[in-house]
Amino acid sequence: MYFPYVRGKQFELIALRDLCGLFPNEILKTSPIIEPVKSSSTLKSSLKELASKNVNFNVVINPRVGDLKNNRQVIIDVLTENLQHYNNYQLAVIIDAFSSRQLETLIEFIDGLSLNFNGVTLIHNSETTTENIELLTSSLNVVYNLIYFSKTSR
Fold this sequence. Notes:
The protein has 6 helices and 6 strands. The chain is of the alpha/beta class. The chain has one domain. The mean pLDDT is 87.
């Protein structure tokens, strides 16, 4: 499985939108991860295009950069407005030192959504405890666990 990670800037989104017809017919071979940086018409049209072409993709609901940092409700509003008839996407959540302290709040937030998404992708940016992983996987429909460490300890 290949997970291309894009920040959700204009030209990255346009490239994804233009390439979505070239993704393999087997939707489980490629699953782009989009970390939105702002709510834009390009973001909305790209999400709709990916969904309508049955591309499996992920949208980060707690981005670490851009105008949408610490504003996940705007992302949820974009998803609700544009993807209400689709379910070929996952909500992606960046798990790091900050978010692992607030897992209960995160689980409640995701459980309270009225979106028709296909599950949750956890993006692990730092080490976390086994208990935290077990809590997340038992409480949420975790489809993918992506481990991304910029540095590893020896």
